[in-house]
Design goal:
mainly alpha, 4 helices, about 65% helix
Length: about 110
């Protein structure tokens, strides 16, 4: 496979960054590209149509990035639930590290 960037986009294998003006020409015909609501909707469509590699470290990190971005945009109860999920995950990590540390220290002493 040729790993050279295609059409100067800087993305290998023909993957291209979505061009906002092209998106308004192709999918959002009739909407004003300068309208903030139309720009938010275009960004939403871009996020929905974006395809990430799956079952790779890059794919998992992109998933974490998407979760963080959506949690930052959330408000009210959804934001608190996202914070709760993050705190629960951090608690599991801290517990696992603590158990591993106690196991290592217990076997040495």
């Amino acid at each position: 496979m040729d790993a050279t960037p295609e059409h100067g986009t800087g993305y290998p294998h023909g993957v291209r960054e979505r061009d906002e003006s092209r998106q308004f020409d192709d999918e959002l015909v009739g909407l004003d590209p300068e309208d903030p609501e139309a720009q938010e909707f275009a960004a939403h469509l871009d996020r929905m149509q974006r395809q990430h590699p799956t079952f790779t470290v890059e794919g998992y990190l992109n998933g974490v990035n998407d979760f963080a971005d959506s949690a930052n945009r959330a408000q009210g109860l959804r934001r608190w639930f996202a914070v709760l999920v993050v705190v629960a995950l951090l608690a599991v990590v801290v517990q696992t590290v603590w158990d591993a540390l106690m196991f290592v220290l217990g076997t040495w002493f």
